[in-house]
Each structure stands twice: as structure tokens, then as C-alpha cells.
Amino acid sequence: MKPVRVAIGLSLAVLATLALGALHVPVPPDFLLLVVADMAKGGAVPAMLVGLPAGLLEDTLLAPGRLLGLHAFSKILVGYLLATLGARAVVEKPLAVGGLLAGAVLVEAATLTFLLWVLKGDFLPPAPWLLLARAATTGLFGGLLYAASRVPWRQRREARRRVRLT
Is 90 exceeded by the pLDDT of residue 67? Predict the structure, then answer.
């Protein structure tokens, strides 16, 4: 596991979540889920270990009055599912990555709804259009990040530099 990469990813995810919250964006992407999904490429254990602090951060940022650990449990579960799916199938297209991330948002929302129903007795499902919009924005943003990470930026920069020198 790469602790510096995780710390930077979680810090950027918290900053992005706070910034979009301050801008009153109605359905921001789940940036903390993107960090968990990134670690899911390395296996189930790293994804689950990153899911715990990511979920606890989300608990403190978004729902401070609720039960502490609900998002942590759901992020651990989603990290495990993404890593297991990644071990069984090769996902290389940005559209497929975006679809998996959108599905992960839906699984996480279903898990949170079920946990709140069991633990508090409140069956409060999220608004379907907001949930689908959040899944779409997370999938779109994650797919774009994946596509950008596959571009050989260093080689392109070196080629441009060589062209300018000649």
C-alpha cells in the first residue's frame, strides 16, 4: 500500500468535497469513493484499509449527527466488491470504469439505506433522481480521470521538447 498516495488522495478528496459543498453543487461526485476505487486495483485488503478512513471522513464531513461508521462500513464493502470484481475481470475502457463507479455509488446508497433502516428504524431511501445524478457524476468524473491517467503525458512532453530543440 502506498501511504503517501492514500494521504494525498484523501486530502484532495476532502478538499474537493468541501469546495463543491461551499459552491452548493447539488450532486457532487463521491470523491472519497474514487480514492477507494483507485486502491482497489491493488487488491481487496488495501481497498478495505483505505475504505475505513475514507468512510470515517465522509461520516464526519457529511453526516455528523448520524451513527459514526456507516459510511466506513459501506466504503469497506464497496472497496472489497470493486477489488474482487477487478480480480475476476479486466476493466480497461473508461466507459466501463465509469459504469463500475456509478454502480458502486448505487451499492453504497443501498447499503446505507439498509443500515439506517436496521439500526435506527428509519427507512429513508434517497431521492432517486439525486442518487442517479450522483452516480452519473461519479462515474463520469472517474472515467475521465481514468482516461487521463492512461495518456503518456511524460512521453508527449519529451517529444515536444525534442521538437523545440531541433
Answer: no
Neighbours of 120 (CB within 10 A): 12
Q: What is the pLDDT of residue 91?
A: 85
Q: Which fold has domain 3-165?
A: Arp2/3 complex 21 kDa subunit ARPC3 (1.10.1760)
For the whole model, what pTM was predicted? 0.90
CB 92 within 8 A of CB 77: no
Q: Give pLDDT, residue 129.
A: 95
**Tally of CA atoms within 13 A in the half-sphere of 14 that contains its CB:** 15
The secondary structure of residue 121, as a DSSP letter, is S
Do residues 66 and 76 lie in contact, with contact meaning Cβ atoms separated by under 8 Å?
no
Sorted by where each begins, the domain ranges of the chain are: 3-165
Q: Distance between CA atoms of 124 and 126, rounded to whole angstroms?
A: 6
